[in-house]
Batch of 4 targets.
Target 1
Amino acid sequence: MPIITFIEPDGRRRECDAADGETILDVGQRFGIDLEGSCEGCMACSTCHVIVGEDWFSKLEVASEEEDDMLDMAYDLTKTSRLGCQVVLNDGLDGIVVNLPSAHHNLMD
Ligand code: FES
């Protein structure tokens, strides 16, 4: 069972147990992390934007073109940004650390 650590914009760390096959967004929502996910994983909002720790970014599957296009509209974009709804966790990602951006752009509003 992978463990994911969310780092909130104020520096607080939250360690959460993920089930194999859950996305970062799924886990965040289950634990009440401030990740809105307003389009529920349809890649239409970018409110699930997370900044993946540098050591972990290269271990993820490469983002699709659709994900990259949506990320371009995310607030606070970095080179290790991903959409939390598109990153599926597994045991190989046990210990992954992701930062929450300080704000989101919600394109669904
Ligand atoms: Fe909308 Fe991820 S939940 S893009």
Target 2
Amino acid sequence: MVLLVMKFGGTSVADVDHIRNVARHVKREVDAGNQCAVVVSAMAGQTNQLIEWTREAARLHDTREYDSVVASGEQVTSGLLAIILQDMGISSRSWLGWQVPIKTDSAHGSARIQEIPNSQFVDRVRGGEVGVVAGFQGISEENRITTFGRGGSDTSAVALAAALNADRCDIYTDVDGVYTSDPRIVQKAQRLDRISYEEMLEMASLGAKVLQTRSVEMAMVHNVRIQVRSSFENPEELEPATEGTWTGSGTLVCDEDEIVEKQIVSGIAYTKDEAKVTLLKVADKPGVAASVFGPLADASINVDMIVQNVSDDGNYTDLTFTVMSNDLDKTIKVIEAARSEIGYSDVKGSTDVVKVSIIGVGMRSHAGVAAKMFQALAEKGINIQAITTSEIKVSILIDSAYTELAVRTLHSLYDLDAE
Ligand code: ASP
Ligand code: MG
């Protein structure tokens, strides 16, 4: 017997028929004698609708009320799943975040989980009742409903798995695992059997939308193994979980030590969420970078990539950096306001850029990975506008018109193409 957390995303609970299908996955595990906590998202599209309504009500609004509204989508699906399970003769009940309770801080809209104390919820799940938990939500010290940011049900699932000391955390979604790249643009992308937490973290924060970044951070800290798998496979054809084994379906997100064959590069990610800002003719003297990035930090704008060109004459240089595209207007305003302190001739913003990243833990022990990347892109005539690296990734900024070409080129370059 194992203790399982099973999480189902919005497309898996899109309507009552889909929820019935989810119930069959749960039944398979219950029939095998497993204990289950199930986390559900809101029906696909529902959270967007709820957010739209809060904006329609008032553009600027109390974020505590925003949370109260947007958390309601998960209330519906958790109740419906409990009803269907009961109808199948399975003992179950629904739990809202505050009932579990999932205790959080008060950062409404992106609250962080602080504690899931031992409680009736834990006892009942251990006693064999299926606990259906509304994802994405918790309760603050001020006794208000909080939510965890978009995609936050993944984090609910991992936190519950840690609190219950679950044997597995299965994240059911509409794809059958984590791929080497986005299958929509790379036809030869392959499903990975295993991926390390660190690689998954980079993939998630660099554009792969399978798991919320925060859930991966939490899994890494608490050593929760996550199996990403599809809810659209026939529920009765999958093997129920048994102790110490992992079903072949999907991708296991786990510790690096559990991955025997380490690739140099495991995946290619891309994100169009970044915008480029260039300051022309900035004085080449000490303190300039501080005068640019200080005010941006004060305005809570995150800067990602930075490139400072060498000046020809030793007096002036151009400075280029990237921010999230939805911060672009604010960034230009902040830079313009600081114009007299910084001193520059012009500021330009553009959104027609894409950040492409290669990710792999094997990079740590291999030289020349970046050089090979730059060479391959140069051969295709792709100009690199900015670069950042970490121990396990290299990211480049290029013209967005070359997204497909760059991603496909790199996918082949690092031998990731399916046969
Ligand atoms: N329903 C929430 C959202 O759409 C949370 C989730 O699906 O994980 O962001
Ligand atoms: Mg999701």
Target 3
Amino acid sequence: MLSPFDETSQSLVKKYLSQEIYQRLKTRSTVAGFTLEKAIRSGVENVDSAIGIYAGDPQSYQLFSEIFVPVIRAYHGFAQGDVHCAGFSPVTLSDPDPEKKYILSTRVRVARNVEGFNFTTHLSLQERQKLEKTVVAALALLPGPFSGEYTAFDGAVAGGNIFNKGDRFQDAAGINSDFPKCRGGFYAKDKRFRIWLNEEDHLRIISQETSADLAAVFNHLYSGLGALEKSLTFARNKRYGHLTTCPTNLGTSMRAGVHIRLKKLNNNRTLLHKIVDEYQLQLRGTGGENTEVEAAVFDVSNKQRLGISEVAIVSKLHRGLEAIIEAEKNCG
Ligand code: ARG
């Protein structure tokens, strides 16, 4: 068989998976049994994939490095030989929206995978159960402001589950297997700190507030994460930092962003995109990835995650938001 990809595919995997590499990698399997065929299934089935590959375990990044390396370099602008630089500590930042006119909420999340388990693309029900048990035991040990309650999905949670079943990209990657079993959400008492269990990564750890206080949201995440790391060890390596299911999240695995209402820039998208690109930010619709902008509310967050520290991400987002708000004010 020649390339498994449709000719019309624009994905990074299609671009970099030469026939030669494909032939070399297709017979390999990680110790846990993850193969290239599984890694690229989502990209093969979804012709509109931008990336087209997921890892099944930490070893995937080494065993299939001939395809992961060019994809990671292209997506993250990461040069060969580069090593991720972490730098996570509390920050002080001014309020980016002192008039409280534009920013509706602020959210910072990171992804984490527990060491010793396969990623969500490659988990049997039994392994997922064991993982859920391990994480729930750790959550029960969270102190003071981070203590809270874990609710397992059973399809009947009041107000709906904290996250939905994954999209078709995740579905083809195996991430939805046995859904909603062993999925759940944890809310700290004050609701500012929450954790998704077994969505795209084992844990999505989120700090969120209905304010523009980026530093407070970031610092709260830092503390909560520190508390969690007392009882859980997460998968990481020197080169890529935190190891995640999707290569787009490697490094800090951090997405820091806001919901911001930009009535004028909504009608001047060229200018908005120019600023967003300048600060290497990403624009999403109101409901997140692959959604539309409603009532001029944009989701603005960092695009860079690898080869940049957590502190640098949040500082750059802060500067970008100030520039966006300035442009919104001056927009005719
Ligand atoms: N696999 C999809 C693609 O290649 C999504 C990648 C980024 N999004 C994510 N949720 N990891 O286009």
Target 4
Amino acid sequence: MVSREQQVPVITVDGPGGSGKGTICRLLAQRLGWQLLDSGALYRLTALAARHHGVALDDVEALVVLAAHLDVRFVSGDGDELQIVLEGEEVTQAIRTEETGSEASVVAALGPVRDALLSRQRDFAHLPGLIADGRDMGTVVFPAADLKIYLDASAEERARRRYNQLISKGVGASLGEILDDIRVRDARDMNRAVAPLKPAPDAVILDTTQMTIEEVLQAVLDEARHRGLR
Ligand code: DC
């Protein structure tokens, strides 16, 4: 039997935080008119649900229950961004804080939690196609994807991007603290036992340190065209 994710064209985009995945995936989904899976949001939502329910981040059993039963809706709003509603509460901004990101990275290191989120992620594969943004999209969740991209950038450049993003939103930030945090999170994501962050053997690796968003987008669209995906 052919599984749905094999029938639906899938482009996976993996890489560390701040490599530009989120922006590129959103633009790709818009350009191609495809679905978008922001898998990091599911780990962030699990961490936030844990906080709301007073579940400790080392209580694996309770975290698995939360992950398996996440009551979440992705709702189209006025702007580009989907609104995210967790248990009836709008949490679009709340899941983006540094604190929730750190907690998500802890939760994401737990194999049973990852397993609990697997089928939910694969359910995003719908025609005409799916752009899947994450850390293990090409290695674990969609191993048969038509195109696998791995975006990278130096930790310093990623910290600068995050810093500028926060400053432009009027949020106070310290570049040094952001860089430290990025290094801690990279180490956790890359060295964990289950589904560590690494390029799939057949991934196209793009170092975006010196590239503009438009250049990265064009490079990915070119790869998609070579594979007959456009
Ligand atoms: O991409 P992000 O910052 O929203 O991800 C939040 C955390 O979740 C990050 O520490 C890595 C983890 N994550 C993961 O382990 N696997 C994914 N497919 C997506 C995110």
